[in-house]
Amino acid sequence: MPVLDRPAILLAAAGYLLLMLAVGVWAARRTRSPRDFFIAGQRLGLWVTGLATMSAAFSGFVFLGGPGLTYRIGIASLFINLPIGFTAALLCWVLGKRLRLLAETREVYTIPDALAARYGSRATTGLGALAVVAGSVGYLAAQLLALAILVEAIFGTREAFGPASLAVAMLAGLAVVVGYSVAGGMLAGAYTDLLQGILMLGAALLVFVFAGSAAGGWREVLASIAASERFAGFLEPFGRAPATLAFGFFFVFGVGVLGQPHMLHKFYMLRDPRQLKWLPVVLAGSQAVCLLIWVGIGLAVPALVARGRMTPLASADDAAPRFLLEAAPEALAGLVFAGALAAIMSTADSFLNIGSAALVRDLPRLFGRPLADELLWGRVATVGVAAAAALLALAYGDLVALLGTFAFGTFAAALAPALAVGLNWPRVTAGAASASIATGAGLNLLLELAGRQTLVPALARLAPPPGVLPSAVALAASFAVLFAVTWASAGRSGRPLDPDVREVMAL
């Protein structure tokens, strides 16, 4: 459908982009120190923190990646969502309180700062910082890919720019993201996360209700998919994917949530640590509502295709844009597109700031050369991280959800064991944490690369069997190495915990 025939969608998208720039200007006036830039001055309340955490976790992964992955592999994609029932509490109980109290006793702005406080090792902290940079670039690439697909759909750039459309759309969206991120840092990100969260909740509820009615009711939706040869196996317990892949999703997104710096970082910003007891309710409740858009569009589009009311998708990632442009009322489409832009851009801001913090704060301090003006260099590094992510997004050539899974898995395999176990078990040594981080990050990158290239036969032979998720293998190996090295080091004298860190771990 010609984009100019849907002016409400254009106005909603353009209005949101202008609003984000305004937030950046407002936040820039309140960003006067690295503390403001990297942890929003540690002055956020319960609702802002909860919605910001949800927004950072979901973003384009839910709006575009979820329906696209469902279209390709069936309801096996929902194994990514099943852990939502316990991950919010797991985050708050296992790590949230300890990270927030560390920020109370020390100048802790980043996840590598927490590793430095716990282990007192340059090697552990440096490896953690490198893992944060690698994962941030990967996750940001997934957001930029989703952003480009949305901009293409909203503004019709495919017709105007042809093969270069994706790159043009990505640069246009990236300019806005970098603009407000460089200006306002994490303070801008937190308040765009708040706007995003509100939009996502409303959009998800409306889309779920409309998706069912547009396809004739949920009973008819399921019946149409079940009767279609095109979608054979779609509704089987593991969809059209091997059971190993479904269980791999559950493992990585259930346990691996404990290694996600874009979510853990939000705990530093909470004004009052006592509000942590209510955070699981806010976080889990908002996540459950937002997943309705994944389920709604993910089931409605195959049903419409099965009935011949929608042509088969050329790319699975087109599921959400096609449904909104072809089946949804203009007002609803405008709201959801604005919500999707909100989701993607605020999450992109989080990763830009997390990655730049690791580059300009954590790594220079490890070498004893802290930068004189971290605020200035943080803004410069933001542009560099954005450029690297854009290149990865253009080169990846696959679904948003798969790129997001790779990035989520990188964080999970590298950081979850060292943080989740290390901040709860004093016996974990710096050597064990370093070995775990190196194993998790290195193995995940190796397996992902081996599974996606054919130029080097020797490397391709290292790829895991079909249906085995590389990040699940890497996460399991990372935990195994952490425990093995810790037990092998039993009885050896290591660096004693600092009194304040010991007290935090004992609470």
Task: Describe the 3D structure.
The structure is a single chain. With 507 residues, the chain is an all-alpha fold. The chain is 75% helix and 0% strand. It contains 20 helices and no strands. Helix 3 crosses helix 14 (330-366) and helix 4 packs antiparallel against helix 20 (499-506). The protein is globular, with a radius of gyration of 22 Å. The model is unreliable at 37-41 (pLDDT under 50).
In short:
The protein is mainly α and about 500 residues long. About 75% of the residues lie in helices and about 0% in strands.
Describe the secondary structure blueprint for this structure.
Elements: H1 7-30, H2 34-39, H3 46-73, H4 84-105, H5 111-119, H6 122-155, H7 157-161, H8 165-214, H9 218-227, H10 243-255, H11 261-269, H12 279-307, H13 319-326, H14 330-366, H15 374-396, H16 400-421, H17 430-451, H18 457-460, H19 470-488, H20 499-506
Helix pairs in contact: 1-8, 1-14, 3-6, 3-8, 3-11, 3-12, 3-14, 3-16, 4-11, 4-12, 4-20, 5-6, 6-8, 6-14, 6-15, 6-16, 6-17, 8-12, 8-14, 8-15, 9-12, 10-16, 10-19, 14-15, 16-17, 16-19, 17-19
Characteristics:
0% strand, 507 residues, 75% helix, mainly alpha
Secondary structural class: mainly alpha
Measured as a percent range, the helix fraction is over 70%
Portion of residues in beta strands equals under 5%
Task: Please outline the major beta sheet.
Answer: none
Number of β-strand runs:
0
- Rg estimate, integer Å: 22 Å
* Assembly state of the chains shown: single chain
As residue ranges, the low-confidence spans are 37-41
Order of helices and strands: HHHHHHHHHHHHHHHHHHHH
Distance between the termini: 58 Å
Q: In one word, what is the shape?
A: globular
Q: Helical region count? A: 20
Q: What's the overall average pLDDT, rounded?
A: 83
